[in-house]
Design brief:
disordered C terminus; mainly alpha; Growth Hormone, Chain: A; 20 helices; 0% strand
Length: 453
């Protein structure tokens, strides 16, 4: 029987789908909530990156729990339940603090605690689930699970956006945000009940499999995995230069309504639903490094597309492009860890990688915020040829340059860890976009004409 059809797989898919409700209706609108509360660019940047950094540091606790807990499953369930309570607590911010500086401080504090639960959960969940999934089925399973997550996230983003949009029309925007946070908390409580149904395996970690963070970093020249971690973290650093400010750019500079904003962010989720299973199968067949190379090159030019046009239809097109290739990049990056690390070291390596990534993302956001606010106006005016001036335009250029630099300098430094089939870049793109039959017919037609000549 295929692992996807097993009871364990079904429970994990349900757990992930209910978590996707929380992500879609609430987490997708944390930035918009910060803008509603009157946040400045630096505060919105801090909201986007300081809590994940704190959450990444909390992964050390999660790693220790995974290695010492009598039940990894029960520990993960408790983290999810605490996460649901903290999601519900976000309702209190606007009623106790109103809008302004103190409201943003309270929001950042609560979201930081929320991210701590995510950070603690990640090593436990990855360690447990990595032991439950057969190695030959990982790409297929995560592609299948992520497809359902994308479907539910897409629906949830639409529902959450409509609730906030309709509430804003009646000048009750605060009520809309309260509603989405309540829905998110309830769905996360339900997801915990499904995770509680999966098998619980005991993990034994021998002393030789334990090493400190500094020992992990010191092996950068010798370790294939450390070089991989530095590459993905640098790509995320580059994305963080501009990523945290897209919500403010769209809602303030482009003056999008909450309805338009919902369409834009849901476009990413929609295309991920369409291609996630394809990326998963390709990951199993051709390896994760190949996918990282192709998608990494294509997402490098993504920020520059924002300089071409700010029309709604074009922005949605940018998001479709972004979702298509970031889906493959993120899935391949996650699967690479499962392939490259033994079960005894998995929780520790996940935690240490997340710490590096968290610091890189935080630094990227801080530098992006400083560039947007401290660089002279002329720096962004250089790129306002086809779009209206915004202080964030310079960030799009810096982000693209940093991504290209990561691909050129760091990507060649690590290798695939499995024996996989070879495939050319254009063939990989044809397969994932379902154009293979059309391409085959075209190629056959061209080849036959060449033979006749």
């Amino acid at each position: 029987m295929s692992f996807i059809a097993s009871p364990t797989s079904k429970e994990l898919v349900k757990e992930g789908s209910l978590d996707a409700v929380k992500v879609g209706v609430a987490e997708s609108y944390f930035g918009a909530f910060g803008v509603f509360l009157g946040g400045t660019p630096m505060q919105i940047g801090a909201l986007a990156t300081l809590p994940p950094l704190i959450g990444a540091m909390a992964q050390v606790w999660g790693m220790q729990i995974a290695e010492r807990a009598a039940s990894r499953r029960n520990a993960a369930v408790r983290c999810i339940q605490l996460q649901a309570l903290l999601t519900l607590s976000l309702i209190s911010v606007q009623y106790f603090f109103g809008v302004g500086w103190w409201a943003l401080i309270a929001l950042i504090a609560l979201v930081s605690l929320y991210q701590v639960t995510i950070g603690m959960l990640a090593p436990i969940w990855n360690s447990l689930v990595g032991d439950l999934i057969p190695p030959t089925s990982r790409g297929e399973f995560f592609g299948y699970r992520n497809t359902w997550i994308s479907i539910i996230t897409f629906i949830s983003v639409i529902v959450g956006g409509q609730l906030i949009h309709l509430s804003s029309l009646s000048e009750r925007t605060a009520f809309g945000f309260c509603a989405v946070f309540a829905i998110a908390a309830f769905s996360r409580f339900l997801s915990a009940s499904h995770l509680a149904e999966v098998p619980d395996e005991v993990l034994h970690v021998p002393p030789e499999s334990k090493f400190s963070f500094w020992q992990f970093i010191s092996r950068a020249k010798q370790s294939n995995f450390v070089r991989f971690a530095l590459f993905t973290s640098t790509m995320n650093f580059a994305a963080a230069l501009s990523g945290p400010y897209f919500a403010m750019y769209m809602l303030t500079d482009l003056r999008m309504s909450y309805y338009d904003y919902t369409l834009v962010i849901s476009a990413v989720v929609l295309v991920q639903f369409a291609v996630m299973r394809s990326w998963g199968r390709l990951s199993d067949q051709f390896g994760n490094r190949r996918i990282l190379g192709v998608t990494g090159a294509l997402v490098s030019v993504n920020p520059l597309l924002w300089l071409v046009s700010s029309e709604l239809w074009f922005v949605i097109g940018i998001q479709l492009y972004s979702g298509l290739f970031w889906a493959g990049f993120n899935l391949a990056a996650a699967n690479f860890v499962f392939d490259a690390v033994t079960p005894q070291k998995r929780a520790r390596c996940f935690a240490y990688q997340s710490i590096i990534n968290g610091w890189f993302v935080f630094l990227g956001s801080v530098l992006g915020g400083l560039a947007a606010t401290q660089l002279p106006r002329s720096a962004s005016e250089l790129f306002a040829g086809w779009v209206a001036y915004s202080p964030f335009l310079i960030l799009f250029v810096l982000s693209a340059l940093a991504r290209v630099l990561a691909m050129v300098v760091l990507f060649p430094g690590f290798k695939e860890v499995r024996t996989v089939q070879k495939i050319r870049s254009y063939e990989l793109l044809i397969r994932v976009t379902s154009l293979r039959p059309l391409w085959g017919a075209t190629f056959g037609f061209i080849s036959s004409r060449r033979k006749r000549r």
